Amino acid sequence: MRHIIPTLLCGGSGTRLWPLSRKSYPKQFARLMGEESLFQASARRLSGEGFAAPVVLTGDPFRFIVTEQLAAVEMAPQGILIEPEGRNTAPAILAAALWLADEDPQALMLVAPSDHVIPDPATFRATVQAAAARAEAGDLVTFGITPTRSETGYGYLELAAGAEAGADTPQSLARFVEKPGAERAAEMLAAGTFLWNAGIFLFTAETLIAAYRLHAPDLLTAVEGALKGATSDLGFTRLEPQAWAGAQDISIDYAIMEKAENLAVMPYSGAWSDLGGWDAVWMESTQDAAGNACSDHATAIDCSGSLLRSETPGQEVVGIGLSDMMVVAMSDAVLVAPKSEAQRVKDAVSALKAKGVPQAVQLPRDYRPWGWYESLIIGGRFQVKRIVVHPGASLSLQSHHHRSEHWIVVEGTAKVTVDAEVKLITENQSVYIPLGAVHRMENPGKVPMVLIEVQTGSYLGEDDIIRYEDIYARG
Predict the structure, then answer these.
(1) Does 364 sit behind a cis peptide bond, omega within 30 degrees of 0 on the bond before it?
(2) What Rg do the C-alpha atoms of the chain give, in angstroms?
(3) Which of 63, 171, 284, 360 has the fewest beta carbons closer than 10 A?
(4) Quick one: 205 and 319 in the same domain?
(5) Rounded CA gap, 64 and 417, in Å?
(6) pLDDT tens-digit profile of 4-58?
(7) Strands 414-418 and 439-442
(8) Does 348 share its domain with 312?
(9) Are residues 100 and 237 in contact, defined by beta-carbon separation less than 8 angstroms?
């Protein structure tokens, strides 16, 4: 059997887990369920014997987050494809198939979202390998989860007559079913012939491309053009934007799976969650005797069935007399709602976008290729930031039209360039960057470098940057 190539999708925005998940740093990169991010856990889960290095599809803002998080778990991808814009799963998966088929048309692809929770990775890997022969034979294999409740938040897969929901081999599939209402979900659970649609697929690149040629030829033309015009950038493959924009924004379920006849479904009876809302996070979290799931900085008093999370060190969250509530607090935003309204959190994001507030899409901590920064205080003509630079990393050589800066190193050592002068600044030392000066900050050490930056000026926006050199190839 060929090695299975994990194809990880990690370009989504995860609005239903706001305020922790935002467009600037979506849920797959967050540590929601442990010390590793969901993306890291997904990459680990689909590794080991029988699995090749992964292919990753993501957006431009996340490309360095992907490489950094994979390096942290000592994994290297065989390819990272950069989507110019989100066009849903059908174009993204096809791009990966075409990229792999260029070298091996029979490449065996396991397509998986990077934000799912599967607590028993060994059993899941065995389930995937049990489906491999069917995929190599030319079928499109989708994975179905044995339902444990009448869930209205998932799509379903209806088994064909005679198929077994508890089988350990791929089964015949009758049809895909949209997310049901409560009454219909209860009926499907009782019938025992329906599985949750996990959005995980296994097929050869050649089989999938043939399905697009038959069912979505216009999509195939657009994505082929985007790949043909792709450019290589620091090891990333950037799909060509103009051709990519011509690809229909559509899911692979609608574009291919609901039309194809060579379908099979592989049942999986182990624990699984797509963490599609804070109610799902509560369900997957450790709970006390009253059913409360509390983070390290949260306390429940006379509460029951509630989720209490503080995502900011030093910020304590206390719930008193709450029942079936979810409270998620960050330094710049707090969510309070009944668990029954978990699917409406995305409505809150839409409302905040309409108000034009940055909390709708932007985390307080802004992640960059070289590290991250966060604003501590913002005034009319000043701003104070904490900046953390990774070992060996460097900010761009830049200048500003409207602000000057003061840098105070509080941890590590900074190599600082100001016009023609280059010097090392150690802990408790500072340097002044006059308005208009060409400057750069680097971390020459082996530990993270932390500094406090005080900006003063008439305009303090992040777009007041003129870049002269940048090792990360940003404009």
Answers:
(1) no
(2) 24
(3) 284
(4) no
(5) 24
(6) 999 999 987 778 999 999 999 999 999 998 889 999 999 999 999 999 999 999 9
(7) antiparallel
(8) yes
(9) no
DSSP 25: B
Last residue of a domain, one of 268, 294, 326: 268
SS3 content of the chain, % helix, strand, coil (to 5): 25, 35, 40
The structure tokens 């699984």 sit at 272
Indicate if 67 and 191 belong to the same structural domain.
yes
**Tokens matching residue 408:** 């105070």
- Tens digit of pLDDT for each residue in 91-144? 999 999 999 999 999 999 999 999 999 999 999 999 999 999 999 999 999 999
CA–CA separation, 409 and 268 (whole Å): 52
Is residue 195 a part of any domain in this protein? yes
- Contact by Cβ (8 Å): 395, 389: yes
Q: 207 — phi, psi (to 5°)?
A: -60, -45
Tell me which H or E stretch contains 65. helix 63-72
331/15 Cα distance (integer angstroms): 18
Task: Please report, for the domain that includes residue 459, its CATH number.
Answer: 2.60.120.10
User: Hey, what are 270's tokens?
Assistant: 């182990």
**Residues 208, 126 share a domain:** yes
Decide if 318 is inside a domain.
yes
312 and 227 in a single domain? The answer is: no
**Structural domain count of the chain:** 3
What is the C-alpha to C-alpha distance for residues 238 and 227, in angstroms, rounded to an integer? 8
426 φ, ψ (degrees, to nearest 5):
-105, 180
Q: Is the dihedral of CA 143, 149, 153, 158 positive or negative?
A: positive
Interacting residues of 133 by C-beta distance below 8 A, sequence separation 6+: 1
What's the rounded Cα separation, in Å, for the pair 87 and 83?
A: 8
Judgement on whether residues 54 and 179 belong to the same structural domain of the protein: yes
CB burial of residue 384 (10 Å; 0-12, 13-18, 19+): middle
Q: pLDDT digit string (tens) for 49-87?
A: 999 999 999 999 899 999 999 999 999 999 999 999 999
The Cα–Cα gap between 338 and 326 comes to: 6
CA atoms within 13 A on the CB side of 194: 24
Which domain range does residue 190 map to?
4-268
Q: Tell me, yes or no, whether 374 and 328 share the same domain.
A: no
Place of tokens 């089988």: 167
CB contact set of 389 (below 8 Å; sequence gap of 6+): 370, 371, 395, 412, 414, 441, 442, 443, 448, 449, 450, 451
